[in-house]
Structures are given as structure tokens and as C-alpha cells.
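Moderator note: this is an archived Q&A kept for reference. The question asked for a predicted structure of one protein chain; the sequence and the answer are reproduced below.
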Amino acid sequence: MVEIEPSRRWEQSLRYFRWKLTSKVSDTAFEDLRKNLIQDGVEIYDLRAIRSYLCEQLGIERRRYHCCPTGCIAYTKQYANMRECPHCRIPRYYESLELVEAALNGTGPFTDLTPRGYYDYIPVIERLRQLFAIPEYAEKMRYASRLRREKDEEVMRDIWDADGMKHWETKGLGSLSHSLM
């Protein structure tokens, strides 16, 4: 992780990004605002740069996946080598079919291809690691262990009080349910 003192531009960019998140502003609206700010002499980074910067500073690994721009599918598993969406028939890449075929056949580079749609995914383990790093969230996520210590046989408060979990405890697999907490 690279730790640097944020520049004035980064400070402004992060302040506007926080506003975007708390105000639930779309990416498109944020980019429109950014263009207007630039016209007024206030330069902030684009969303791609801000997200990359934050991931780098926080040590978060992101994975990028191609998807249909209309949201039909993600190009993973059985769809990984498809050239177009099987549902709406929109091509996967902007480039010509010849360039796509060359890349898929191994005779051309994938780096020259631009997907029409993609999304970034942060793996669950990474998300949990970040949540456990915040003391108030870490405490909230440990509620199941508190429930187990403070038993109340008269009331079902959560899944941990369910007969299924009690069954596993009687079979000597209580540690299995403990590992889920």
C-alpha cells in the first residue's frame, strides 16, 4: 500500500465522491457535475481514478468482469468465450468481429478489445476484512456469539436458536456453527 499525502485535487475529488455516495448520485450525474466543475476551474479526478486510488490506499483487490451492457449476463463460466449476448444479441466488444476472433483464437491480443459492459467485484472475504477493521461493525458482526452466550430457551431470536443449529450441537458439531460466527 502506497501512503501519500493527498494533494488539493485529491482532497476535492474525495470530498465530491463522498457527496456522491451520501446523496446517492448516479455515476453519469457525477461525471456531468465533474465536467461543469472543470469548466468553472475546479479540477477533480474522474470516478475510475477515484475508485482506483481508494482501492490502492485501502489495499482492496478488485476483479473486473465483462457483462452485457443491458445486464443480461456476465461473461463468466459458460459465457466466458461468447462474442455476443445470447439473449439480446448485443456484441461483447466494440471492435470489429475480425479483431475479436483473432483475440479469441490466440492470434491477436485481448488488450486491444474494449468490452461494451463490465463491472468491478470486490470478493466477499475482502469486504468482510474491511468491515472487521471498523470496530463498530466488527462488534455488530459478532452478535451471533453473544446470542449463544445469552441463551433464552423460550424465544427464538435468530437462526442460531433454530432447531437445526441445536441438532448440530447434539451431534458434536457445535464448533461447525461456531465457525460461522
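Archived answer notes: The chain is about 50% helix and 5% strand.
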